[in-house]
Amino acid sequence: MISATDISFGYDGNLVLDGVGLAAGPGEVVGLIGPNGSGKTTFLQTLYAALRPRDGLVTIDNDPVTSLSGTALARRVAVVAQETPSDLPVTVAEMVLLGRAPHRRLLTPFNREDHRTVAAALTRVGARDLADRRFATLSGGEKQRVLVARTLAQQADHLLLDEPTNHLDIRYQHEILRLVSELNVTTVVVLHDLNLASRYCDTLVMLNHGRIVSAGAPEHVLTAEAVRAVYGMHVERVYAGGYLQLIFSPIDKPSLHPSTA
Ligand code: ADP
């Protein structure tokens, strides 16, 4: 269970989160959505104590996140942040093995079970054949899948993901999010694609200018009115194959470059 209450945060005095909160129950997938600059990444970073809020409280299974040591936190929370550590001179298998570190005492070698866990994690994300490649040489999408594998190897029961579908082709976008939704791990995920968010999240939290506009079931959050107000886009909602699908079109505005004809 991840709970955040009344979180406010500012960079250099500028308030970018103003009293936001969320609750992700056991096994639930909560999607953070909102336009660029609305505060999603900042909010996510407060959930794993990478940023300390000015006000408010974040708890993991009722323990304040700031009270947990780095190792205790890493046993319970796995994170895929936006910046990928791309220039580490490690193989893919070694990168995923790093996910086992919180389970090992300092300087004890990895054992056979660690290696088995790594192989299973790579298989689950379709990256087993990449195990011996140097991580730095992978494409953006391959890196993203490997970093998700690292979180699986970490076996934490909370997962925080910042745009995990970035760089992924359409098949892996769905495969990664389906995997996450089937893991039975409490998850908060930042997503840009509202159709993916609607399909794979149990609950959505929509941010705009550092505030929560609405939160709840995807079909209640992704209304035409909210999408128009927050993104400035017209949306048509259709149900296809049992899923809500949003079809977007720009709202007509006077052209910035009026024809001279
Ligand atoms: P989102 O993830 O929704 O795009 P962010 O959380 O990255 O939004 O950013 C929210 C606001 O905070 C933006 O106005 C952004 O410019 C600002 N911001 C983000 N990171 C920093 C930083 N390190 N220093 C100063 N301002 C920042």
Structure in words:
By secondary structure, the chain is an alpha/beta fold. It folds into 2 domains: 221 residues, Rossmann fold (3-Layer(aba) Sandwich), CATH 3.40.50.300; 30 residues, no CATH class. Helix content is 31%, strand content 29%. The chain is built from 9 helices and 12 strands. Strands 6-7-8-3-9-10 form a 6-stranded mixed sheet, with helices on both faces. The chain has a 4-stranded antiparallel sheet with strand order 2-1-4-5, covered by helices on one side. Strands 11-12 form a two-stranded antiparallel ribbon. β4 and β5 form a beta hairpin. α4 crosses α5. The mean pLDDT is 92. Bound molecules: adenosine-5'-diphosphate. Adenosine-5'-diphosphate (ADP) binds next to α1. Adenosine-5'-diphosphate binds next to α1. InterPro entries: AAA+_ATPase (IPR003593), ABC_transporter-like_ATP-bd (IPR003439), ABC_transporter-like_CS (IPR017871), P-loop_NTPase (IPR027417). Keywords: ATP-binding, Nucleotide-binding. This is ABC transporter ATP-binding protein. GO terms for molecular function: ATP binding.
